[in-house]
Design a protein that fits this description.
Helix content is about 40%, strand content about 15%. It is α+β, with helices and mostly antiparallel strands. Helix 1 (about 1-10) packs across helix 3. The mean pLDDT is about 80.
Amino acid sequence: DVSQTFSETIRVLKPGGYAFITIPNPIAIHMLVEKITFPLRKKTALYHKTVSKKDLYQYAKIAGFSINQIFYHDFYFPLYSLIKFVTRKDIYWFKKAMRISLNIFDQVPIIKNFGSGIALIAQKPYED
């Protein structure tokens, strides 16, 4: 349960403490491929609840966090994952080159929405 996760996170943080939370982006390229191919794959007990950027923000606010930053990240990851899937190996120099070049898209307003994940930096308020 996402709301319970946020409640527990704020409970265990000391006042003024920070939480860095990152989740898969439900509209990332690799997530869209996963949704399309889901009916063809073998069923597992793993369940993936999709949470949007807006939902993540709301869960954090309801739990009592003050939001420092929320953003999409790692545009390169879905493309690199596809290459790794096809080649069946991790090509570290290529991954680094893709990270440097494609993360430029993390700055482009429309395109950045398709980054691999959503990150949230939130702070537990200080007690009065």
